[in-house]
Amino acid sequence: MDLNLHSPERQLIELKIEHADLDALLDLAVHTLPIDELLLRRLKKRRLLLRDQISQLESSLDPPEPA
Q1: Does position 2 have pLDDT exceeding 70, yes or no?
Q2: Nearest-5° angle of CA 2, CA 48, CA 61?
């Protein structure tokens, strides 16, 4: 697997790491910390954006199956 700094595979790994970090932060914030609702909405929106980017990148990396 080519993991140079700008390869799609590397980008996918970095997006998944950022998504997991946001998941952990949101879980912690919701269950333990008093948090600003606006900040919470922004974090959730960012997490959804990351999920969409991950999905798009995964579909571009997977070759289409022949019909």
Answers
A1: no
A2: 25
